Amino acid sequence: MHKFTYLDNAATSFPKPESVYQAIDQAMREAGGNPGRAGHRLSLAAGKAVDKARLLCARVFHAESPQQIAFTQNCTTALNMAIHGILQPGDHVITSMFEHNSVARPLYAAGVEVTKLPMNLHHGLCVDDIKRAVQSNTKLVVCTHISNVTGTINDIATIGAFCRKNGVLFLVDAAQSAGNRKIDVQNMCIDLLAFPGHKGLFGSPGTGGLYVRPGLKLYTILQGGTGSSSELLDQPSKMPNKLESGTLNVPGLAGLAAGVRFMMEQGVDAIEAHEAALANRLIDGLSQIKGIALVGPGNAPDRSGVVSICFEQTDPAQAALVLDSAFGIATRGGLHCAADAHKAIGTLQTGGTLRISPNYFNNEQDIDFCLAALEQLTGGI
């Protein structure tokens, strides 16, 4: 039996670097206090672990200071904080048809006017389309950096420059790009960046964050204890305390710091190149299998490592089940929490796609084994 082959890194990365496991264990044993809530050694150790993670995340995204990074339990929470913290009834938002429900649902719940633009599978959102969609009440443009369905990459630097020039706020969902694509929030004119800690940054589930541009004021959707200004009923106004109510996930953030350090040591360029090579090998192999169709752009650099396919005669969820049970291969079949994207590509009514997403810890043998399994599954040799 072949070793277990994990190709579902778009959902969460696995395995993690050994240093991440060690950091989580060490934090549980040696930094078990509540950060910012006391002056004893365990509380101070916890605070240092959080500060380290904040500093490293700020460096990765080129934030103006670590204080502009607020930690959350995941990217979804960060997106909700940004969307509900910025928008009010009467505002207009421009987004795309390829957004995850972590964007689509908060926008729907906010009760604002939303324009959903089409997205070219090869080149992403068109800035000219955004320009034509701008209205007098347009408050925000929000889009994913990389589609979690097709692997399509948006040119967020160009979109950000347009938004900054025209006085529109820009929110980026970096769920599929944080850690494996270069992101510079200052040069790319990003006002708000939501990111997960458990995917390309190699941290554990239960970690994520929101970058907020200095001077940008958000309404808070969560109020509570922050360890600061405890005498006031008002939520503290300074970042990151304004957005960090309650006890932080100290072990998770210690692991995140170790994951970010590992990522920085390998280099974003090297990680991107490795994932691109695996995606190209996968796409080339898929083109030789009858009964399978690629959904999305062709070979890198026009795409990320997220690869989706459709079958002529097989349900994608069933295919994922067979790959797991018969071959020990982890993929994901279905709608991937992005119904609008599947509607746009015509797979909503057919059960979505099978998504295969390698990462830095995969190798060519993993891809070849997956291709061989797909040949057997479809009989498409």
Describe the structure.
This protein has 11 helices and 13 strands. Helix 1 packs antiparallel against helix 7 (250-266). It is 38% helix and 15% strand. The chain has 2 domains: 18-265, Type I PLP-dependent aspartate aminotransferase-like (Major domain) (Aspartate Aminotransferase, domain 2, 3-Layer(aba) Sandwich), CATH 3.40.640; 267-378, Aspartate Aminotransferase, domain 1 (Alpha-Beta Complex). The model has no long low-confidence stretch (mean pLDDT 95). The protein has helices spanning 18-30, 41-61, 75-86, 101-110, 127-133, 156-165, 250-266, 268-286, 316-327, 339-345, 364-378, and strands at 5-6, 69-72, 92-96, 113-117, 138-144, 169-173, 192-196, 208-212, 292-295, 307-311, 329-330, 332-334, 353-356. It has 381 residues and is an alpha/beta fold.
Task: List key phrases describing it.
single chain, 381 residues, 7-stranded mixed sheet, 4-stranded antiparallel sheet, 15% strand
Quick structural summary:
The chain has 381 residues and is α/β, with parallel strands linked by helices.
